[in-house]
Every structure is written in structure tokens, then in C-alpha cells.
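Reviewer 2 asked us to include a model.

Predict the structure of this chain.
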Amino acid sequence: MKVEDFNLRGGLTKDQIDLMHEKALYLVEKEGIHVPHEGILSLLSNYDGVIIEKQNVRFRSDLVLKSLEEARYPIPEYAKDNWIVSAGAHQTKIFDLDTGEIRETTLRDLKDMIKLGDALDTVGSAPVVPLDLPYYLQEILMHKTAWEYSRYRANDMFEHDPKPTVECAQYIYDMSKVADKWFALGLYMISPRSFDRKELEIIYRFLNKGVPMWAGTMPIAGVNGPITMLGSILQAMFETFACLTMLTLLNTRSYTYIQVIDSFIAHPFDWKFSSFVYGSAEDIRGSLNKISLHKYYNMPFSVKSLLTSGKRPDAHAAFEVGVFTLIAALAGARVFRCGGLLTSAEVYSAEMLVIVHEIIEYIKALLKEEEFSEERLMVDEIAAVGPGQSFIGRKSTLESFRKEYWEPELFIHSNLGQWREMGAKSIEEYANEIAKRKIKEHTYRISDEEKRELDKIYERAKNDEKLMESYK
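Predicted model (C-alpha cells):
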């Protein structure tokens, strides 16, 4: 037998979610969403159960339920029965690894942070934006670099890298075919219940390519959603249901799904400082409700527990990440987002990513399954060691101590004297050394042939005036 798993009880009840589900369906059917795109409106008008009044679109409930039932969630093999860290994304400022100063991100940072993330087995979107490159090449390079230097980045349903124009999306799509990498298009709603016309145009132009498409939304409690977290979560459900239904009807050549990153969640907001408050108590409660909803709909889920309002990789940041991640893990989460992000996603830190990785390893050690058996009770060992003697030299101890105890790389268990002998370094200093070492020692590269083909596509993009114009 095994020791019973530890778990967290509570969250939204089935009856509560049943009511929220009913109200979300009501809003989709009776209120609808704003769709400012004539081509998409024309396609939707062909379906029974879709009611269009000018640019407002309502969907009959049975269409919503069918879309929820048909949604597909392709979990990558590496993520099955495993703990997953997503490290990023899209940051434009970074703590310099040499000076510690905050500065704008570069292509070198993009490569280094992808290498570090790959060394730590992280997934998700490209971590930073290469601001030293022309604006029309930045998103293309984020994908290209992620694919060249990592196994998992921008390569499954945990990514949400931007593809902001049709022309940019086409280049990334072409590169994905060459490199045999994941390509999907997402459609974020602009709360309350509208869309960016440019994003709708990208969806419209890619309907004939047979690519997966996902629905997402990001209501902020009290800003573009109701002030109560429950009210904003209901709005997220309503908007997501409507967006998913629309994509399911449009994307007949592939499948659709609800984005597992920001779905069914309300983002907390601090009215004193006019800022997001990730890592707060309110943020944790909202994420626990999100977990309840994902379980109700039998969907995979991730939590944004690695994002903090801390300004440096310090005690504030580590406390928020540690508490949030432990609570989420006890509630069943195994995919954790935003590793390396500080000050509510304003700046990236390699040191924070190393600290985050250590926190996850700590929690994994805490919650690991432990077999209960007579062998592990070690009755014979207890009987064999006399009064006042030691177990240190016993064969069983020497053979098993590494398996019984987690050996941290960062949170080392040295005493005061040993710590002083090792240089009396802070956690941030140790994390800096580990990050630099892992970047230097990183070896993964895409194949030479695939790299050459990606370079050819990139060279075309560099001088593509239509691509440049699409960003204006």
C-alpha cells in the first residue's frame, strides 16, 4: 500500500458550477458577442442557431454544448503524469546577468533564456522579445529561436506566442512546417465581449489551412469585468463559450479548444497602484476556482502560480511563488506558468527561474508518493543496532540515503561554517551562478538541415515590404 496522497479540499461545488454554467449559456444565447468582421459574419450566417444583429452574434445553447463536447486537448507525451514548468513569456525587460541592472531585452537574451529554460526542462512561449531587431521580425525570431535551441518551447498547447498580422502568421506557419513544430492560432477576446478586427482577419485567412485554433479571454476584475472575482469568472466563461463556439463553426478543417493558460479566470487588480496583483491571496482563490471549473469540464489546466508582484528574486517573490504553487499542487495542479517573471510580468529574471525550479523540486519532494510496507518499517534494522550505536555505517543507509532525501541544488543544507567557507553567498548569487553555468553547458540544437531551411525563410522575411507594412 502507499501513504494516502495529501490534497486540498474545497473550491466551487458542483451545484455552484451548474448555476454558473447555466448563466454563461444564458449570456451567450441572449446577449451575445461583438464580431467586427464581415467575412466571419457571412460564414456564421449559414448556420442554424446563430442569430446575427448587425455585428452582435448570439449562439443557441445546443451549439455551445456541442462545441464544448468536441473540443480536443492534445497533451504532449512529456506532460503526462509529470510536473511541468512554463517559463515566460514575451517580456521586454530583463535583469542583466552580469550587472544586475534592468534593461531592454535583446536577441542574445532570447537565446540565453531559451537555453536556460531548456536546460531546466521548461515549456511554453518564448520568454523575451528581441527588441534590438526590427519590430516586424521580432515574433518570427521568437518562434525560430525557440525551435532552434529547445525541445519544448513554442511547440505544444502550452504556448501562446503572438502572431499579430496575417503576413507574420504565414511566415511562422511556413517555418513550423520546415521544423516539424506545433502551430496553432489563438483568438483572445477583448473583454467585455468583443474582438480585435486584425486578429479576426488572421483567423479568417487561415481557415483553409487546417490548423488548430483556441479561444481565450482575460477579464480584469473591476476593470473590464465585474468587481467580484466570481462575476468576472462568469464573464470569462460566457466569453470563452461564445468564442469557442464561433471558432468551432468556422474552423471546419481542424479542431478547436479552450486555451488552458488563462481560461475561466479573472485577473486581480490593485486599485491603489493601478496594477495587477499576481501572487496575491485573491489571485490564489481565483485560480482555485479555475481548477474547480476545469475539473468540471474535464479539461487540462495550468495555474499562473510562478508569477509574482515581487520586484527582485528575493523573499517576497519566493514566498508568493512557494505558497501559491504548493496550494495549487495540493488542489491537483501539475502545470505551473510564468517562471522567471517578476513585478507582475514587467521584467524577466534568469535567477528567478532557477529559484522557481528549486521551489517546484521542493514541493515535488514533499508530495511524492511514499510506499508503506513492512520492509520500509525496517524492524530488523532497528533490532540490529544496539543502544547508543549509529545507523550511519549501515549498508541500508549507504544504499538508500540519496533516494530517501531530496538533495537541493540551490537551497543547500550546509551549516553556518560551511556556508562561510563556500563564500557566504546569497541565494540570488547562487542562482546567478547556476543560470550562467546552465546556459554555457546547454547543448541542444535543431538539425543542421532544418536550421538552414529556417534561415532561408527568415532571410525572405527580412526584406519583405508587405510584412513590414502589415505592422503599420
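The chain has a mean pLDDT of 95. The chain is about 45% helix and 10% strand. We have added this to the supplementary material.
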